[in-house]
Amino acid sequence: MLNDTRGALWWSYQLLNPDIRRCFEFCNIFPRRSGFSRQELVRLWIAGGFVKTSCSEKDMEDVAEDYIQELLSCSFLQPVVDGSFGSDFTIHDLLHDLLDKVTGSDYFRIENETSQRGNKSWKGDIPQDVRHLFIRIYGGELITDKILGLENLRTLILYYGGKDTTVDEKFIECICKMLPNLRVLAIDLSWANTGPNFSLPESISQLKHLRYLSFIAYSCMVILPIALAKLHHIQMLDFVDCEFLGFGSTGLINLRHLFLRTKVKCPNIGRLVSLQTVPTFEVRNEQGYEVKQVSDLNKLRGRLEISGLENVTSKEEALEANLAAKEGLTYFKLKWHGGDDSTRCSPEVEAEVLEGLRHPVGLEVLDIEHFKGSSYPDWMLSAQNGERKDPQLHTLRFSFCGPRGPGPELAAFPCLRVLVLYDCIWDALPDNLEQLKSLKLLIIHHCVNIKALPTLPHSLEEFCVNYGDAEFRKNCQTVGHPCWLKSSTSPRKNLHLHT
């Protein structure tokens, strides 16, 4: 039976499109029974040059997604049910056996100091012609000399584990100097002993073919060299867990994905017109950090947060962001900084700025934080009047906003399913909530000035009041009180009140 199963797997493997087959073979770089994320897989495939597209209108990411769907349909990729540690997929051991045979010495995994591909009798040798290498180190010394002699290496993924593992900056420098053909370099120092600072070497610029650079370090300050901007072919930079870094964007013309913290200094990001991922952009009163920097970033997809909006001083300036053209966005957050009101524009100006930050059609989540404008934008009302619909917007969140909340503008979102009010200083909820015919969840968290309820929509399934005015919370639980009656009008399925 086992041989029959292996024969069937081999036959299915042979039937795969050659490009998809190459992408699936790359999955052999991951240890057995480990998970990997969808986005990680897509970006590694693209960086490795495995994704081919003959249609100039279709992004490589979309082609790679098609590959994933094909591999899922034939069960070569298996979904991770619980999504543990951000993993989406895994591969069955029998398929790993198949990949070990068909990839030969092209792929090599060292899962600890004494085990290679699960082989406990491994003697420490690495094939000289290996092209893709994964090493997980739990302690002791790295087999440095053997790695640095691998002239054909294209992918190097290093995971350091164990507090006794010390990482030498000189080793990273040697990688840059002696492995010039690398296309993928991923180094995870999450559990390594790095000291307070860690510097990437200037020799990083010698990796002329590098497409993918990931450097994870939880506990140290990472210093990036100016030479990073010389990586003209780089497509993905991931420094999301680093404490501080700063570099120029000049020359990174092929960069598609940028994962950074908000403390990062990266001026003139608007030159990176191939960008698809940049989770946070902070507007500053500095040249190169104006809101217009995002004007031409129309390939952005997924999530975008724009903070520092108190530094935008007019509707005309806000319009320069050209947000409506970014149709690939699904989550959009607009954030003014809290704190001293003396550093902010007037409420009238803030209202004008929000007017100019009209989100694109197709958005699913809109998140507005620390907005204190005198009114809400006309584009909400125009949607309500039928000039524009937002059929996909299902979640609207207001945090630390006030003193005025939206009124009739809320009716602009007829498909809204979730409405969250978090620590807002509004005096009342909008009167027209009952017009939100699709609303399922209403959360009011620590909104101390709200003391009464309007009529709620019949579609509401869950109503949550957390903290806030004590009398209001009591009234919502008192049978017969107007607040109780209004919160109980839904033909409830699972209507809950959390206080």
Automatic annotation (TrEMBL):
Tell whether Protein transport is among the UniProt keywords.
no
Residue ranges annotated for the Disease resistance protein winged helix domain, each copy included: 29-98
**Keywords linked to the UniProt accession:** Plant defense
Pfam families in alphabetical order: LRR_R13L1-DRL21 (PF25019), WHD_DRP (PF23559)
What is one process in the GO biological process aspect for this record? defense response to other organism
Domain (R13L1/DRL21-like LRR repeat region): residue spans on this chain? 292-423
Xref: SUPFAM superfamilies: RNI-like
- What is the name listed in the Swiss-Prot or TrEMBL entry for this protein? Uncharacterized protein
Which organism was this protein described from? Answer: Triticum turgidum subsp. durum
